[in-house]
Amino acid sequence: VVAVNAPYVAGFLAFREVPFLLETVQRLETQKLGLKPQVLLVDGNGILHHRGFGIACHLGVLTGLPCIGVAKNLLQVEGLANDELHKKQVSVEIKLINKCE
């Protein structure tokens, strides 16, 4: 459990949570000798952040590790829309992936 003192401000999650995530990665590397992640999955946006640089990007720069943002919601990004067409395109992609397996 981590005590967070900074308030939540939409669009600025990295400034609130990256210090704790960075500390966790560093502890993993120092306390568990030889155990270093090859990639990090982050609960938040990366390049699909509306400013193009979300929490996954921040953590990636600070750790030197590839980070993938796995956000729960699609933010407003130019060229992407969370509408029926988008849902249909995602459905088609999932079906193609399932056929390949």
TrEMBL record:
Q: Say yes or no: keyword Nuclease present.
A: yes
In terms of InterPro entries, this protein maps to: Endonuclease-V
Q: Localized where?
A: Cytoplasm
Supply the alphabetized keyword list: Cytoplasm, Endonuclease, Hydrolase, Nuclease
Q: Which domain of life is it from?
A: Eukaryota
GO terms for CC? Answer: cytoplasm; nucleolus
Q: Name one Pfam family in it.
A: Endonuclease_5
Gene Ontology MF terms: RNA endonuclease activity producing 5'-phosphomonoesters, hydrolytic mechanism; single-stranded RNA binding
Record-level GO BP terms: DNA repair
Q: Which Gene3D superfamilies match?
A: archaeoglobus fulgidus dsm 4304 superfamily (3.30.2170.10)
Where is this protein chiefly located? cytoplasm
Q: What protein name is recorded for this chain?
A: Endonuclease V
Q: Which organism is it from?
A: Naja naja
> Source taxonomy lineage?
Eukaryota, Metazoa, Chordata, Craniata, Vertebrata
